[in-house]
Amino acid sequence: MAIVTLVEYLRSNQLPVTIHLNDVSLRNVTIEFFEISDKYLWLFTKEGHEMKVDISDFTLVDFDATVHKTFTSIEMVRQLRILNEDKPYNAYIRNSKNKVIASFICIGGKC
After folding, report:
1. Other CB atoms closer than 10 Å to residue 70's CB: what's the count?
2. What are phi and psi of 42, to 5 degrees?
3. What is the reported pTM?
Protein backbone atom coordinates (compact mmCIF):
# COMPACT_ATOMS: atom_id res chain seq x y z
CA MET A 1 0.00 0.00 0.00
CA ALA A 2 1.47 3.35 -1.06
CA ILE A 3 0.48 5.11 2.15
CA VAL A 4 2.45 2.63 4.29
CA THR A 5 5.55 3.10 2.15
CA LEU A 6 5.27 6.90 2.40
CA VAL A 7 4.82 6.97 6.18
CA GLU A 8 7.57 4.39 6.74
CA TYR A 9 9.90 6.49 4.57
CA LEU A 10 9.14 9.60 6.64
CA ARG A 11 9.62 7.70 9.90
CA SER A 12 12.79 5.84 8.99
CA ASN A 13 14.48 8.95 7.55
CA GLN A 14 13.23 11.16 10.39
CA LEU A 15 12.13 13.81 7.89
CA PRO A 16 10.36 16.87 9.30
CA VAL A 17 6.88 17.38 7.86
CA THR A 18 3.80 19.52 8.41
CA ILE A 19 0.68 17.34 8.60
CA HIS A 20 -2.76 18.74 7.71
CA LEU A 21 -5.78 16.70 8.76
CA ASN A 22 -9.25 18.24 8.69
CA ASP A 23 -8.84 21.57 10.50
CA VAL A 24 -5.67 20.56 12.35
CA SER A 25 -2.11 21.33 11.29
CA LEU A 26 1.00 20.06 13.04
CA ARG A 27 4.01 22.04 11.85
CA ASN A 28 7.50 20.60 11.50
CA VAL A 29 6.88 17.30 13.29
CA THR A 30 8.71 14.00 12.98
CA ILE A 31 6.86 10.70 12.85
CA GLU A 32 8.08 8.42 15.60
CA PHE A 33 5.65 5.52 15.22
CA PHE A 34 2.60 4.58 13.19
CA GLU A 35 -0.02 1.85 13.16
CA ILE A 36 -2.28 0.98 10.25
CA SER A 37 -5.43 -1.06 9.77
CA ASP A 38 -7.95 -1.37 6.95
CA LYS A 39 -9.79 1.67 8.27
CA TYR A 40 -7.33 3.87 10.13
CA LEU A 41 -3.80 5.21 10.16
CA TRP A 42 -2.56 6.34 13.57
CA LEU A 43 0.42 8.68 13.58
CA PHE A 44 2.51 9.38 16.66
CA THR A 45 5.08 12.19 16.53
CA LYS A 46 8.28 12.72 18.51
CA GLU A 47 6.70 15.95 19.69
CA GLY A 48 3.98 13.96 21.51
CA HIS A 49 1.08 14.36 19.06
CA GLU A 50 -1.30 11.59 18.01
CA MET A 51 -3.42 11.72 14.85
CA LYS A 52 -6.02 9.27 13.59
CA VAL A 53 -6.64 9.31 9.83
CA ASP A 54 -9.65 7.54 8.31
CA ILE A 55 -8.23 5.65 5.32
CA SER A 56 -11.21 3.35 4.72
CA ASP A 57 -11.75 5.02 1.33
CA PHE A 58 -8.04 5.54 0.52
CA THR A 59 -7.27 5.42 -3.19
CA LEU A 60 -3.91 7.03 -3.96
CA VAL A 61 -1.09 9.36 -2.97
CA ASP A 62 -0.04 12.15 -5.29
CA PHE A 63 2.63 14.82 -5.19
CA ASP A 64 2.67 18.40 -6.36
CA ALA A 65 6.33 18.12 -7.37
CA THR A 66 5.55 15.45 -9.98
CA VAL A 67 2.54 14.64 -12.13
CA HIS A 68 2.62 10.96 -11.20
CA LYS A 69 -0.01 9.38 -8.95
CA THR A 70 0.98 6.43 -6.78
CA PHE A 71 -1.33 3.53 -6.06
CA THR A 72 1.12 0.83 -4.96
CA SER A 73 4.20 0.56 -2.77
CA ILE A 74 6.39 -0.09 -5.83
CA GLU A 75 5.22 3.13 -7.47
CA MET A 76 5.78 4.98 -4.17
CA VAL A 77 9.38 3.76 -3.88
CA ARG A 78 10.05 4.99 -7.43
CA GLN A 79 8.57 8.41 -6.68
CA LEU A 80 10.45 8.79 -3.39
CA ARG A 81 13.72 8.03 -5.18
CA ILE A 82 12.98 10.77 -7.71
CA LEU A 83 11.87 13.26 -5.04
CA ASN A 84 14.77 12.55 -2.69
CA GLU A 85 16.80 15.31 -4.36
CA ASP A 86 13.89 17.78 -4.57
CA LYS A 87 13.13 18.47 -0.91
CA PRO A 88 10.90 19.92 0.32
CA TYR A 89 7.84 18.53 -1.48
CA ASN A 90 4.21 17.81 -0.63
CA ALA A 91 2.19 14.56 -0.65
CA TYR A 92 -1.58 14.28 -0.62
CA ILE A 93 -3.55 11.22 0.46
CA ARG A 94 -6.80 11.03 -1.51
CA ASN A 95 -10.03 9.04 -1.40
CA SER A 96 -12.12 7.61 -4.24
CA LYS A 97 -13.77 11.02 -4.80
CA ASN A 98 -10.31 12.63 -5.21
CA LYS A 99 -10.79 14.50 -1.92
CA VAL A 100 -7.67 15.06 0.17
CA ILE A 101 -7.85 12.95 3.35
CA ALA A 102 -4.51 14.18 4.74
CA SER A 103 -1.61 16.30 3.52
CA PHE A 104 2.09 15.94 4.25
CA ILE A 105 3.54 19.38 3.53
CA CYS A 106 7.19 20.46 3.22
CA ILE A 107 8.55 16.93 3.47
CA GLY A 108 12.22 17.13 4.34
CA GLY A 109 12.32 20.87 4.92
CA LYS A 110 10.97 23.61 7.16
CA CYS A 111 8.17 25.79 5.84
Report:
1. 22
2. -105, 130
3. 0.90
Cβ neighbours, 10 Å, residue 57: 12
Task: Give the residue-averaged pLDDT of 55-82.
Answer: 88
Neighbours of 62 (CB within 10 A): 21
Of residues 1 and 41, more confidently modeled: 41
How many C-beta atoms lie closer than 10 Å to residue 37's C-beta?
9
Whether 98 contacts 6, CB under 8 Å: no
Cβ neighbours of residue 6 under 8 Å, at least 6 residues apart? 61, 76, 80, 91, 104
E-state strands within 1-111: 17-21, 24-29, 31-36, 40-45, 50-54, 58-63, 69-70, 89-95, 100-107
How far is 98 from 35, CA to CA, in rounded Å? Answer: 24
Mean pLDDT of 74-78: 90
Residue 15 and residue 89: Cα distance in Å, rounded? 11
Nearest to 90 by CA among 72, 107, 70: 107
